[in-house]
Amino acid sequence: MRAYTIFKAVTKNWIRSRSGLFFSILFPVLLLLVFGTIFGGIGGSSRSNIFVQNLDRNTSNGKPTDLSTAFIEALNETETFAIKDVPPDANATSYARNALGPLGGNMRILIISQGFQEDLLNGTLKVRVGISYSTLNMSYQYFEPHLNDTQKAAYQQGLDQMQQFDASLPERQASLTVMLDQSDQSAAIIKNIIASIASAFNYQLIGAKNVVQLNETSVTTTQFSNIDFYLPGVTAAFIMTNGIIALTANTTEFKRRGIIKRFSITPLSKTDWILGNVLSQTLLNLMLTAIMIALGWLIFNVRVIPDALSLLLIFLGSIMFSGIGMTLSGLVKDVEAASAIGNAIAFPMMFLSGTYFPLEITPSYIQTIAKVLPLTYFSEGLRYAMIYKYPEGIYTNMAIVATLAVAFIIIGSLLTRWQEK
Amino acid sequence: MSKPVVEVDSLIKQYEKLKAVDDISFQVFEGEVFAFLGPNGAGKTTTVEILECIRPLTSRSARVFGYDVTKKDEAKEIKKRIGVLPQEFSALDKLTVKENIDLIGDMYDKHLDVTDVIKLLDLEDKTNERFENLSGGLKQRVGVAAALISDPQLVFLDEPTTGLDPKARREVWAVIENLKKLDKTVFLTTHYMEEAQILADRVAIIDKGKIVVIGSPQELISQHGGLKMLVIRKGDKELASMLQEKYGQTTLNGAGDVLVKIDDVNEFWRVMATLTEMKMNKDIEIQTPTIEDVFLKVVGARITDEGELKK
């Protein structure tokens, strides 16, 4: 009951503090908005810009040819590119540079050469004739022992005529020019996509079918966007900062001002004091999670839904980081030192625990460091619980978080002084 | 005499090489205002915190309401019965006066009505004011209110007026005098002589962890305060020499005042008769010794406003 009274008072004190509210709730929300805008597609398309200059025009009316138009449509259907037309009479590079404006951005230009359609048709016809000749020739070789001389002569004549026709066709290849920045990290991907479309065009025109089919299935049951994947990480990171930075600073300040001593003189027990503070932190973190997810739903159309396991994990994570906060405040005396130590621990942990980017892409030594950071298990567990719904991942991480929560609460309690020396 | 609520017997508190409290013994009786008077570092707060069960003692015993402060279960009983205004009282900044007092009250099984306590401390106008917006004096009054909310039998007030301006200090004194009227036992620590003399029924002067003297202010003054002083404003050297020759114990101070120490009423009238014969038209006043004189006599130094000893 007394723990509940402390919980109410500490929570009320925090809710009325503008700076507390800013750093615990508004700052994480602002960061989510920034992340969401960058990765969630707010304020414009998330497709990559590409400038396309189509020089292949009908001489009669100046309109783009059918095949060049089809190629651009195929490019558009990949849903990868935001295509920007470059007029045929413009210098493509200058035009793209002007269009990108002073802020720049990666310059990606595709030029469809004049004669693209004609070269493509001629090239395709030559390929088709070549394939037909080769097929007939193989048939002839196979059936030759069963043919009489007249039949052989007729076959031979047909093959000769076909060879002559093939030789009469010009060697033509449709030409596409791709211009990319050396520094563009997406250059290789863009080049491959364009090459794939060109190959598909080749196959289509010669009437070939794909014999190898690539089937793609998502490992998640729901269609998630990038922001869905960031949301659990960002939430976990700020539950961590609320415990390690905010709780450490608040508790140290309470200690410095004699507030903890004032309560220790009353019949309130240390356990009730700790419980009240941990409950307050948990409520704050649940509020933070609820606000982040509500904003995600409203603004970024996120689909992650925290279930009972996620809430349990958030509860355990809150206890774990509250325990770390209490441990730190038990070790330092002044508020400045508490803030400095809290920041020195929280910020590297935030970036080394795979909350903002997958650990797989980091060097091996960072992956080793991540293994000893509590946030790694908390954010990974939260991601498993909120997105993948992968029980083994959830329970393993939850077990680690629960163990650390118990350990740090015990250490923090021992270091919380309820009696002077 | 009333029964003792605090009994301290040869109490020692040792920190490595420093003996903060050095073998002190005293009792505080029900209904009295008992003052611990001494400079910073004398051992006042250490003793009080031992009695509040938040600091362990090194040796011998201390009992409050008959309960041993060193025993965990008995400490709980003590905490239920005491109210405390700690040194440099502070509370949750964003909570109001009422919320803060109520919060402390809720730590006890039963407590007084918070509105009554607010009224008692004359804090009605500030009931819904946040703690952070209060002046130093008002904050101390909230601290006293928080100390009284549990309706304690014994109230510890640790340096209740330190850092306050004279007006705020007198406001707190009024509150303590009110506690006396409510028959509360008050254990006051202070380094202000005047505070101890005005408020306390008994004073213990403590220095370097030891109690130097203990008694009522009147007893201490009569035993250690020295003689009363007749002060003749703007006298001169001749007058001082003449009075010295006739009565002895006469000095001329830097301000030009002639100071004559007088043993009794007869001597006072003799000096007055001499001055009348001389048709001396001077301002005359009688200075009685104070606790400050007692302190100077027994400790050999004065205490500055900041609580430091000054030889």
Supply database-style keywords.
heterodimer; A: 421 residues; mainly alpha; 2 domains; 4-stranded mixed beta sheet; 67% helix; elongated; B: 311 residues; alpha/beta; Rossmann fold; Alpha-Beta Plaits; 4-stranded antiparallel beta sheet; 27% strand
Could you explain how this protein is built, in words?
- The complex is a heterodimer of chains A (421) and B (311).
- Chain A has 421 residues and is mainly alpha-helical.
- Helix content of chain A is 67%, strand content 5%.
- Chain A contains 15 helices and 4 strands.
- In chain A, β1, α3 (66-77) and β2 form a beta-alpha-beta unit.
- The longest helix of chain A is centred in the middle third of the chain and has 31 residues, at 226-256.
- Chain B is elongated, with a radius of gyration of 23 Å.
- Chain A binds chain B through residues 2, 5, 9-10, 12-14, 16-17, 257-259, 261-268, 418-421, and chain B through 15, 49, 52-56, 76, 79-80, 82, 84, 86-95, 99, 103-104, 106-109, 130, 146, 150.
Give a concise summary.
The complex is a heterodimer of chains A (421) and B (311). Chain A is mainly alpha-helical. Chain A is built from 15 helices and four strands.
Helix content of chain A: 55-70%
Oligomer: heterodimer
Largest interface: A-B, 24 and 32 residues
Outline the low-pLDDT stretches of chain A: none
Sheet with the most strands: spatial strand order of chain B: 6-7-8-3-9-10
Count of DSSP-assigned helices of chain A: 15
Number of domains of chain B: 2
Q: Could you name the ranges of chain B where pLDDT drops below 50 across 5 or more consecutive residues?
A: none
- Principal-axes geometry of chain A comes out as elongated
